Amino acid sequence: MTDLLAQGLTGSTGVLGVIGDPISHSLSPAMQNAALRSLGKDYIYVPLAVSPLHVEEAIAGMRALGIKGLNVTIPHKVAVMPYLDEIDPMAQLIGAVNTINNDGGRLTGYNTDGYGFLRSLKEEAGWDPQGQRVTVIGAGGAARAIGFQLALSRIESLVLANRTEERARYLANDIHHRTSCPTVACSLDGLTSYLGTTDILINTTSLGMHPEIDTMPPVDCECLPTTALVCDIVYHPNETQLIQKAAACGLATLPGLGMLAYQGAAALEIWLQVEAPVEVMKATLRRQLFGDE
Ligand code: ATR
After folding, report:
1. First-to-last CA distance in the chain?
2. Looking at residue 229, what is its pLDDT?
3. How many separate domains does the chain show?
4. How many helices and strands (H and E) does the chain possess?
5. How far is the CA of 153 from the centre of ligand 1 (A)?
6. 3-class SS of residue 70
7. Are residues 123 and 162 in the same domain?
8. Looking at ligand 1, which residue's alpha carbon is closest to its atom 26?
9. Ligand 1 pocket, Cβ-based, cut-off 6 angstroms
10. Statement to judge: residues 144 and 168 lie in one domain
11. Is the domain of 119 the same as that of 107?
12. 99-103 and 157-162 as β-strands: parallel, antiparallel, unpaired?
């Protein structure tokens, strides 16, 4: 609270926020307020708990209250869509919205999740996905966002491996038909046969996430090319068992904190048309998650 007051709210302070249910665990308020302070912007970013029964009213409230921007998290990413005036083409493809911009009462929905991963891949790992053979583990919302984003980044091919193979097959068909990217699906048991031809491997499942830190997807890192990059979107712990095993095999790795920071940075850039202070945002996340100074 003192932190908020220290920001010096005025009669003209703009409002940003995040809606979800639950929302109390969200790291976005700390990350975005740190960014706003660092930019010297007269905005505040607040967590807003919205029940699934009140999504329509929440969006009407955004208009009525002149809230400039909202992030949208579980479970509202699909439910908000019918109440917006416009959906950005990438969010349309992904079928979910994680960012809403209010431009004088006109609400546009975006999805910055896949873009957040792409920026982390490029800026932190130094990898351009163009021409690469990518394997994504999982077929949920995060896999959809990353799958479509990479399929449109001129990768050579995409493999989707999922516990429920049917779900991977559905997503693979969708991506293939809508982007023309060669995409196939397999079960987790079938994953091994694709590892030898994988340049970039990405875990989008919750396997390895705190507190289940001893779990990991069934990946034998010895089967990957020695030049492969192993990515995990799980950001807590910072180094999942998958990332640790890959590093022990001498492979390049990319942990999940960057995607979290860059999806937030992209939202801030949409709302305020500024360059987001990503290093401040990452440091805030690290402090919140791991107590780093
Ligand atoms: P998100 O939006 O974070 O992607 P989600 O849509 O609930 O979350 O998707 C979770 C993904 O993690 C799914 O691919 C899920 O596999 P299923 O489609 O078979 O449910 C995967 N997942 C979750 N727990 C898992 C586990 N214990 N083993 C293997 N896969 C798991």
Report:
1. 21
2. 98
3. 2
4. 11, 12
5. 24
6. strand
7. yes
8. 207
9. 138-143, 162-164, 167, 204-207
10. yes
11. no
12. unpaired
Distance from C-alpha of 93 to C-alpha of 91, rounded to nearest angstrom:
5
80 Cα to the center of ligand 1, angstroms: 22
What pLDDT digit, counting tens, does each position of 98-109 carry?
Answer: 999 999 999 999
pLDDT tens sequence across 195-226: 999 999 999 999 999 999 999 999 999 999 99
CB 7 within 8 A of CB 44: yes
- Output the pTM of the full model: 0.96
Same domain, 266 and 278: yes
Which residues form the domain of 228? 115-255
Q: DSSP 3-state assignment of 52?
A: helix
Which atom number of ligand 1 is nearest to the Cα of residue 215?
A: 27
Catalytic residue from among 41, 68, 77, 122: 77
Query: What percent of the chain shows pLDDT beyond 70?
Result: 97
Q: Are residues 234 and 270 in the same domain?
A: no
- Cα 29 to averaged position of ligand 1 atoms, centre (Å): 26
CB atoms within 10 A of CB 272: 19
